[in-house]
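Notes from hallway chat w/ T.B., transcribed later so I don't forget. T.B. wanted the structure written out for a chain they're using in a teaching module, and asked if we could keep both sequence and structure tokens in one place. Agreed to drop them here.
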Amino acid sequence: MPKVEVLSIGEFIVDVLRKELDTPLGIPADFIGPFPSGAPANFIDQAARLGAKTGFIGAVGDDDFGQANLERFSADGIDTTYVHRDKELSTGVAFVTYFSDGDRRFLFHIGNSAAARMPLPARAYLEDVKWLHICGSTLSASEAMRDRCYEVCEMVVEAGGKVSLDPNLRPELLGGEEAVRQVCQPILAAAALVLPSASEAEILAGISDPIGACEALLAGAAEVVVLKRGTEGCTVLADDESIDVPAFKVEAVDPTGAGDCFDAAFVVGMLEGLSLYECGRLANACGALGASRHGPMEGALPRAEVEAFMAEQDSQAAR
């Protein structure tokens, strides 16, 4: 049984992107892709490229998209013992278009695809897991996927591992903010690390103030809450401390997956025992790089390239 220290579970799909800005999905026009994708899949790919021992629980179809995804994970050293290859349903797909004002539109084929048939791992597989990462997008996709996340979360906690949650909320898929809170609550009650945006923190806590909302989340199970602030960097909250970590600058090309890269870097930093400030720096760097290339996983760079990017940015700032 392979040793897995960082594990994620959820949708393993492909993204197909509009080639040009401001092109609605409902008209004939060019696409680029497919690109391996899915929030938890993006997360684990970045974690693997940073050097963590990683595994994934999910499912793909027995088709070309599924094969491409599996080849990507194999190349990056991610264990796929529990990635099911379904012979009945096709690999999930998200069609994505971008607009000049920064808006994105998605058309998802996930909950009724192979992605929904995630297997249940053996307990022995979870013995070495230090961190399990769960995304709100998975909790939103289907009841079957949500229930599997609940099961695996409970198993990991029982085995002594910790849970991280990126709310990655889809209120429109669940019927409103109260439904979102109900769906996230079983994971939130177990999560040692929560990584929300400002609006997500406010929704989860029911408080119209991002910092106040994060402090409320700390009053629950969370040991650390990381408020993602985009081009402003992040704020890390733990116990009585609040640490602002400045952003790194890049030209944003494709923001899809950047938050997942951020999450992975923060978790890997905690796994390695870095300070909370250094975890935030590594996360900001990976988040910035994640937005710098087309395709959700294409900006998930190896550790050496991330560190070179950080050193170059630090050098420029010192001039």
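Follow-up for T.B.: The mean pLDDT is 94. Might be a good example for the class.
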